[in-house]
Structure formats: C-alpha cells, structure tokens
Amino acid sequence: MYSIKLGCEKMYCGENAVQALKTLGGKRAFIVMSGDILIEVGSYKRVADVLAEAGFTCEAYTEVEPEPSFQTILKGAERMNEFEPDWVIGFGGGSAMDAAKAMWVFYENPDYTTLEETMPPNTIRHLREKARVCCIPTSAGTGSEATRAALIKDTVHKKKYSVRDMNGRLVPDVAILDPSFTVSMPKSLTAASGMDALTHAIESYVTPTANPFSRAMSLASFLYGYQNLALCYERGDDLEARANMLAASCMGGIAFSNSGLGIVHGIAHSFGAEYGVPHGLANAVVLPYGLEFNSQLREVKKQYDELSSFVGQPSLVEAVTELNRRIHIPICMKEVVKDEQLFIEELEKLTDKAMSDVATPFNPISPTREEMQSLILKVYYGE
C-alpha cells in the first residue's frame, strides 16, 4: 500500500496569478525572502500591494541565506512569534520557500529546539493551528512550493537536514506560479535551478518507491523541463517557456515527494554542505555521472531510454550532457570547488555524508562505500 498527495490544496498558474493572493482570507502575512533583491526589483511591492488590497498587514523577513541555516530558522520563528501571522508566505527560490516552511514549523511548535525533533520517526505535533502557508517561486527548480520537506543546513556540523512530514502536512496550502516573477533570473540561476528540476524528474522516475501517480508527474516534469529549459536560458523573457518550466519544477516536486530521489542528490547535498555549492548547480554537475552509475542496472537503463526516446535523443546521458553544454554547466566539480588539496583531504568525509544522506537509500542501486567514493572522484575530476 502507498499513499499520495498531489501537491497543494490550490495552485494558481499563469500570468497575473499573483492576484489570487486576494482569495487567501486572513489579516497578517509574514513574507520570507532571501535578501533584498525582490524588494529592489519591485517584485515584493507587487505582492504586498495585492495583499494590502485584500486587507492584509505584511511584514518582510529578508535574512535567509542561499543555504538556509538552522540559526536563521530560529530567528525567523522568533520574529513570527512577535508578529503573529495567520499566513506565512515563502517568496523566492527554494531557499526562501524551504526557510518559510521550516520557520512555520518552529512557529507552530515553540517548544522545539532541535532539527531532529522535526524529522522522522518523529511526527511534527502542531501545524495550521496558528497559520497556513503559501509559496510563490521566483525560480523553477526546487518545486518546494509542492513538497513535503524543507532542506536546512547545520552550519556547525556542515550537514543538511530535511525537515519533513511523511504524511504530506508540510506541503504548502497554496502555490502561486506566476512566470513574470522568474524573468529577472540571471542565466546562471535559470540553468542551475532548471537542472535541479530535471534531476528531480529523472531520479523520482527510477526510484524503487515510484508508483504510477509519481511516475506520471516525473515524466511530465521531464518533458516540460527538457523542452523549455534552454529556451528560458536563451530567451529569458519568454513567458510561455517560463510558465512551462514552473510547471515542470512543481510537478517534479510532487513526483519526488511521493516517491524519492537518489544518489545524485546524495552527492550534491554533500558538496553543498561542505563547500557551499548551490544545490541546483551541484545536481547539474553530478547528474550525468549518476546516470552512468545507475545504468549498470538493466531495468533502470530501460527507464532512462524511455525518457530519452520521448525527447528524440539516443540516450539520457547524451541528452543531459548536451543540455548541460548548451546552458554552460561545468563538466566536473573541480571547476566549481577549485581547491583540489582540500577536496582530497575531505574525501572520506564527503563519502560518509553522501552514504548517510536522506536521498541515497532511494537510489535504485545501493552503492557500497567504495563505489560511492569512486563516483565522487569521477564527479570531481570528470574521468
């Protein structure tokens, strides 16, 4: 038996979808963002103006890092306790949305003091007693607006933790997928976040815990993502392509929330935690190597071939490698983490982290420690 939750209670999609904020119902909105950029480009004002028309009082919280830390989550939850919102709005990329969801957990459960209390086998005790959650993505990658988890970094132990509820209660109540918020993304972020979405689609398609519903979402996510990412990269103001990438990202989030991920995420999380490599970029670099590793299994290779056939490519590894080249993704991690000596010194630690990562157990092949370390070396050197 398996259970599924296909995204939010309500998703509003397309140009001017931001107007749907008027339908939320409520009085006080706490808006979580990563830095001031959305204020500077006028996007925050658009959101705040719509909420003001609906009678909301808003407070902005902008102190979220690119890799949100537990310390930031606790600070944000403290501000929420002072402001007492009835809606928490994550506005931005995956970092802002994940931070908003995690802050909400600690706002609803003020007695919590550790990340471990918010992770299985523990069950988050209180949710939706003080506030509900809306997410407005400004990048197309994480799908956090539709996922049951929030990725938070422990800066002391340099490890990422997944705040999550296995029953889907951490999935936001509302998502606003308005492509106009994504057109200001720089090309590098468009590329990295888009490859994050494609990684979600591919890994969730082949995980042993996939089911007919998750695979349908995985396939649609892959098709829309593969067909539109390069267009978004090359023509950033193409709203149709941007809307399709938002859909791909959201469906990828729904897919892996109802199945799992795999070794690509396990290794990417480790490079992100240890060296601060942005999550989407890390996935983009690791993905071709993860595909080659998993292709050892005949059934997985068959599933990869299914995906590549839908986009007219001879193999999935070639399709991903060519797309990476077109959108200027580095070939190997050495181009990103340039201190080779430091990498060599921390190889054992990286291997340990990848082996124990929350995503790794869902990989179709369970790697030995030696296989994991060998794969990490290939990812770094490109050989």
Automatic annotation (TrEMBL):
Q: Name one GO molecular function term.
A: metal ion binding
Q: Does the keyword RNA-binding apply?
A: no
Matching PANTHER family: ALCOHOL DEHYDROGENASE (PTHR11496), HYDROXYACID-OXOACID TRANSHYDROGENASE, MITOCHONDRIAL (PTHR11496:SF83)
Query: Taxonomic classification, please?
Result: Bacteria, Bacillati, Bacillota, Clostridia, Lachnospirales
Is Transport one of the keywords?
no
Q: Which residues form the Fe-containing alcohol dehydrogenase-like C-terminal domain?
A: 190-379
Looking at the record, the residues that make up the Alcohol dehydrogenase iron-type/glycerol dehydrogenase GldA domain are: 10-179
Where does the record place a coiled coil? none
Q: Which SUPFAM superfamilies match?
A: Dehydroquinate synthase-like (SSF56796)
What is the recorded name of this protein?
Uncharacterized protein
